[in-house]
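Morning F.,

Quick status update on the modeling queue. The single chain you submitted on Monday has been processed. Sequence for confirmation:
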Amino acid sequence: MTKKIQVEYRVYDGQDALSRAAAEHFVKKVRSAVEARGVARIAISGGGSPKPVFALLADPRQPYRDVMPWDRLRIFWVDERCVPPDSPDSNYGNARDLLLSKVPLAPEHIVRIEGELDPEEGAARYEAAIRAHFRLEGAEIPIFDAIQLGMGDNAHTASLFPHTEALHETIRIAVANDVPEAKQGHRITLTSPVINAGREVFFLIQGADKAEPLKEVLLGAWDPETLPAQLIQPQGGRLLFLLDRAVARLLPAPNGQGTGHMEIAR
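Structure tokens below.
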């Protein structure tokens, strides 16, 4: 059966405008989740695009920090490199330095991936931590309130890289994925069924080098082995992209408010 995905993409002029829009969206998602369920469980990604967003959220001179219900926020990671937390390549380390160490978020509300461990052990411990936090039983999977993703210039998302085993995982919550092209060799990642179960999934992408891959992901033929970002098909049938103008240049032109819509079949 063909699945229809409603795609919305919002296009911004430059990194500052994109980062501010992402910070506003982050606050909105946390506050709405707290209003609805008393707590917000958010999974964030690494890479370059979220870094200025983290800095904005932590900055007391900006309008985001003081309106965030930090005591109700629970932070998780979409994926992690297999490095110690003090490595400059650590997704957790970057978020800690730019955001977590600067805001009133209790350590027990931060559920990180232990990238310094053996990859299989790190994945198993992360899955166990998620199961305990969400109080899951049997084959249940967690439902995050929001999941923020990025995308590489090879169309990978999370640590779901082209032609790797993790693309085919349908049971586990988190797995170690052997990524030959990554300098660490292995990464730990949430699986696509977990990502697709999120109440909202949104991509934050910038840069002209990703324009062609993004066009292929959204408008090209179905080929998730080569274009892993195509695996992201939220159960709610809606997908949001926050983009700068350079990465959006090959998509249909947005309207006057910088927003575009399309329906894709998977």
